[in-house]
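FAQ: What does a ligand-bound record look like?

Like this one, built around zinc ion:
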Amino acid sequence: MLVDSHCHIDFEEYAGRMPQILDVMARNQVSHALCVCVNLIDFHRVLALAEGHTQFFASVGVHPDQGENAGPAVDELIERAQHPKIVAIGETGLDYYRQEGDLEWQRARFRTHIRAARECGKPLIIHTRDAGEDTLRIMREERADEAGGVMHCFTETFEFAQAAMELNFYVSFSGIVTFKNAHAIKEVARAVPMERLLVETDSPYLAPVPHRGKTNEPGWVRHVAEEIARLRDTSLETVAEATTANFFRLFKPS
Ligand SMILES: [Zn+2]
Ligand SMILES: [Zn+2]
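The answer part, i.e. the structure of the complex:
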């Protein structure tokens, strides 16, 4: 069995498609998926998915790409994280690629999430783009290692992965690892220890080969796992077993 550790299937493009999504998951032996929150306004949507389906868990957080005034306060995160199907805080982090100007608000929001995660004892889901140095610096300053978590949709160097693993973090690969020209990421996917690996789709984005360009969905995480198995010269079963065990060890869903 496989688990999609990061998807956004509460987005509008999936409206009315839940039966098919569950069917594709079942046919690909994907037992669970984590529905990741990007804004408190839409938290009710990921919560409804998690409450309505045994296959889904959810998180609470405000994405760094959400505008400056989207909050949240530490207490707002902790309060929502009390629900038994909320297994993580995020997604949070830094994105210097899609946002411009003085991004102090983004760093402050990231610190808020780390504080909430430490306080409620749930792991963090971290997004980082063009901001590697600041991401690690803030993780260290705020003692993110006490919460642990995952660096999602990994696109950084192996050195970055090592630094994150030293801080108690897992490394999650998306469909990018299946792209022909993603040589550097393929190398990292080969080198990260099996006990720190996770797989994800980041649906609706980044559909893996052979579905590139389409609306991604959790069942297709199988292609990510297959490519990692190929890169590491091992079986799909080995990658599935390890990444699923890692998911349950990290997120401890009840
Ligand atoms: Zn992300
Ligand atoms: Zn995401």
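Follow-up question: can I read anything off the structure? Yes, for example: Residues 6, 8, 36, 91, 202 surround zinc ion (ligand 2) (CB under 6 Å).
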